[in-house]
């Protein structure tokens, strides 16, 4: 759980970036890929 601290902060930054870039349609596909990658890392 402790090791996830910095990773969580990084994910917050990624989510903020996605929110700012949500006008870009192709980026939605990329965000889904990032989420899938993050879920694999979480295991």
From TrEMBL:
This is Uncharacterized protein. It comes from Klebsiella quasipneumoniae subsp. quasipneumoniae. The lineage of its organism: Bacteria, Pseudomonadati, Pseudomonadota, Gammaproteobacteria, Enterobacterales.
């Amino acid at each position: 759980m402790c090791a996830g601290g910095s990773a969580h902060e990084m994910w917050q930054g990624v989510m903020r970036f996605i929110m700012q870039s949500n006008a870009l349609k192709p980026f939605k596909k990329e965000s889904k890929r990032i989420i899938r990658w993050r879920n694999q890392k979480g295991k």
